[in-house]
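Render this sequence as a predicted structure.
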Amino acid sequence: MAAGWARPAGFALLVVVVLAAAASADRPARGGLSVTAGAEESSAVFPLYGDVYPHGLYYVAMSIGNPPRPYFLDVDTGSDLTWLQCDAPCVSCSKVPHPLYRPTKNKLVPCVDQMCAALHCGLTGRHKCDSPKQQCDYEIKYADQGSSLGVLVTDSFALRLANSSIVHPGLAFGCGYDQQVGSSTEVSATDGVLGLGSGSVSLLSQLKQHGITKNVVGHCLSTRGGGFLFFGDDIVPYSRATWAPMARSTSWNYYSPGSANLYFGGRPLGVRPMEVVFDSGSSFTYFSAQPYQALVDAIKGDLSKNLKEVPDHSLPLCWKGKKPFKSVLDVKKEFKSVVLSFSNGKKALMEIPPENYLIVTKYGNACLGILNGSEVGLKDLNIVGDITMQDQMVIYDNERGQIGWIRAPCDRIPNDNTIHGFEDGYCWPQFPNIIGYQNEQSAVCYSSITK
């Protein structure tokens, strides 16, 4: 759901409206949630497609239905509900890559179902059914003003696991028949959204309930485009990653490593600790007004005379050099690293080098991919988006209540046969010597993943 610079698109406001049972009777009825018998807990790895610029999102192909049909889903750790644009019939749908999902009458989730109660109660604290036969209606709204209105359904998802088995669990997701997303005339890159938040309606939580995977999800987004997504913990480098305990947002159950202090070029910027959320559904990173302005002032004060500020409709703040830049590598020497120091984790630092906060546009300008979140209604929340998470494996471990990250070769998908498919490439982060933290192993790489 990511798009223009002003929209932290995947970050859901998570407003669910329990609609009256007025949805037309010709929309599908529902059958029970299927249970996967005899499934062994394992992991699954999926290739990712897309990029931060110019496409503005990363997405995955999922096989849904019987027989299975492919659908492209925007990978969104900032929301729980997975949904597809669907013909139920469709009131308002944008053009999508695949034929609209068409549910059958036995797929509708009734309002009295526990999954419907979890959806409504988890997001609004309210759940009421006027009739046992009432369907589970929803409306979810996102921070970019996009929305999906629909009904909860169940259908099978075909998943190939690391233990070589193929499972077809029946999972609940949204059948969205009235969308307000993007342009109705342009073909969307995706058919819907893959919600990977921590709520019980999340696909990840449902797979855990079925005993298929552990409640662990991670992604590795490549600056070259693509990457991979995984469910389960078979490829998690527990002993090498940087970890911080999950801290629940004061507003919603977003993935948060807690508050962080902000540094630029090894020095503190003198702003109060920032509440930080990780959100793969947001193309760019967003800081609230005070840290954003402090960072912009620091960057501008540190730039050489080789760069001049220029207008570029791609992003609000851009610079040009003596000749057009071809990639961030051409300009990164002009900028210093940003560092987030998380108070919840021991030595939990996240380095944000220039290539993780700059893009080079089609005009050859270098533009700042950290934006003012206060201008788009995020108040005091600070979102670490795709641009900052590129070339890092980011792990959301709901089993242990922690979030981890480590530099990794995201354009190399783990081997299908062994899962442990990386031969080399993991390195300790290259932190500057700041805030009393000396990274003595900054030059060490290792060749295998060990827990």
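Summary. The mean pLDDT is 82. The radius of gyration is 22 Å.
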